[in-house]
Design brief:
Blueprint (H helix, E strand, L loop, with lengths): L2 H17 L1 H10 L19 E5 L2 E4 L4 E4 L14 H13 L9 H12 L5 E5 L2 H16 L3 E5 L12 E3 L10 E3 L8 H6 E4 L5 H8 L4 E6 L12 H14 L2 E5 L12 H6 L5 E4 L10 E5 L1 H4 L15 H16 L3 H22 L5 E5 L2 E5 L8 H5 L7 H10 L2 E2 L5 E3 L6 H20 L4
Parallel strand pairs: 3-15, 5-8, 5-9, 9-10, 10-11
Antiparallel strand pairs: 1-2, 2-3, 4-12, 6-7, 11-12, 13-14, 14-16
Helix pairs in contact: 1-14, 3-11, 4-11, 7-8, 12-15, 14-15
């Protein structure tokens, strides 16, 4: 870390501590009793605790108001606490939050999801996106009788053991080997050995699938990678679908982030016109409440009858009611999507124009309302390119300045806009981002 970087970090940290004293006090107390408070990948460089959220705004425990670009890490499509969601929750909480038994609400949400998801004829609910991808993997193994699975460089599929595998950066870019993600301990080698790591947006992936087809149960992919958001991946996804079909390997879209967001209710499947064998969903189908789902054709989904799945809160009535309310609203208000697309593209265009004019080593990537900054001028085509970026400074510094200027982006630096973000909100975000980049430059860091 350079002296300028140390000075910038010291001064912005001092400012944020003065701005959020209650957050700092809570952090000191919680550090004694909690090893970490959300997940390891979402550690902010400063303590920040949320008191409430509404629409496009969020307030911390010190009463500071911000424009929120976290959106619950993606599932908050209509903004925080929309009326349709609040009413559904109130009505259901009065009738009961959890029965441990089935209710008719599961069928209602399932019907809406099947109507939206091109590959779906049946749906099975769980409690999270992590559980959904874990169950989808178990389902694929049971259905095919094969044990191995494939994921891509730069992918994210949750926090179960099989998902916590990534490409070893020192291995062959076109035939990568696996290791535990983030260097995390506790992942057995035999699980790492079950994963086939495929190079993203690289035709070499097709040959690897063909080579391993006898052992390969399923290929899992984020149709738009959260680490590399882009919309030019359609041809790659279509060919991947063809190769999996000819090889007798199941093909799965992980739509935990893209579902209901990219292009419309049909998600990436509709946007790219690619129908997988399975699709997984997360909190977006619960209106932001904890839920996961696996969706697919009946012949595959009926394999659930011979595997174990479920939990006390799977398909719980509170989540089912809120999810059905939000999905029905999206169905009857399609104007939500053009609005988000217009404001998203304007945000990316204006910020990137500024970055080019200022000759800064940063670019904003986006797939409609899903965004990420890459701190480089070089083209980013895959996770390998992201891994090779040599930063001028720690990117967390920029997000710290942005926080000071009234816009919240989470520690993992993936961010979103919602239907609640107005044109004025986007103007304020653009202004805050420009100001924050110039402040970083004032320390000689960019």
């Amino acid at each position: 870390m350079t002296e300028n970087e140390k000075r910038a970090k010291k001064e912005i940290s001092r400012h944020l501590e003065k701005m959020m004293p209650n957050s700092h006090e809570i952090s000191k107390r919680n550090a004694q009793i909690l090893p970490h408070e959300i997940v390891n990948t979402v550690i902010l460089p400063y303590p920040f605790y949320v008191q409430k959220a509404e629409g496009s705004r969020i307030w911390d425990v010190d009463g500071n108001e911000y424009i929120d670009l976290t959106a619950g890490f993606g599932p908050i499509l209509l903004g925080h606490s929309p009326e349709v969601l609040v009413d559904a929750v109130k009505n259901q909480i009065n009738a009961g939050a959890d029965f441990g038994l089935t209710s008719p609400l599961q069928g209602k949400l399932a019907e809406l999801l099947i109507e939206a998801s091109p590959c779906a004829e049946m749906v099975n609910f769980s409690n999270s996106g992590t559980e959904a991808t874990m169950e989808a993997l178990r389902l694929a193994r049971a259905h095919t009788g094969k044990t191995r699975y494939a994921i891509f460089t730069g992918s994210y599929h949750g926090v179960h053991d099989a998902a916590l595998i990534e490409a070893d950066k020192n291995s062959d870019q076109h035939a990568p080997t696996g290791r535990s993600k983030f260097g995390a301990l506790g992942i057995p080698q035999y699980i790492i050995d079950q994963a086939l790591i495929l190079p993203y947006r690289d035709d070499a992936a097709f040959d690897l699938i063909r080579q391993h087809k006898e052992d390969l149960a399923v290929v899992m992919i984020e149709p738009v990678q959260s680490s590399n958001p882009r919309t030019d991946v359609g041809p790659f996804l279509q060919e991947l679908r063809n190769v999996c079909r000819e090889s007798g390997v199941l093909f799965m879209f992980d739509e935990v982030i893209t579902g209901m967001r990219i292009g419309g209710m049909g998600g990436a499947q509709a946007f790219f016109d690619v129908k997988p064998d399975l699709a997984t969903y997360g909190k977006v189908i619960g209106g932001g409440h904890p839920v996961g789902a696996v969706a697919g054709p009946a012949d595959i989904m009926n394999t659930y009858k011979v595997i174990f799945s479920g939990g006390t809160f799977s398909g719980n009535p509170l989540t089912m009611a809120s999810g059905a309310a939000v999905l029905n609203y999206l169905k009857t208000h399609p104007e939500v999507y053009p609005h988000m697309a217009e404001q998203s593209n304007r945000l990316a265009k204006e910020v990137n124009k500024f970055l080019v004019q200022e000759d800064m080593n940063v670019r904003m990537m986006n797939a409609q309302s899903l965004f990420s900054f890459v701190f480089t001028k070089m083209p980013v085509e895959s996770g390998w390119d992201v891994a090779k970026i040599k930063y001028d400074f720690q990117p967390s510094l920029f997000y710290s300045f942005l926080h000071k200027n009234g816009v919240v982006i989470p520690g993992l630096h993936l961010f979103f806009i919602t239907a609640a973000h107005t044109a004025d909100d986007i103007d304020m975000v653009i202004k805050a981002m420009k100001k924050s980049f110039l402040e970083v430059r004032s320390y000689g860091l960019i």
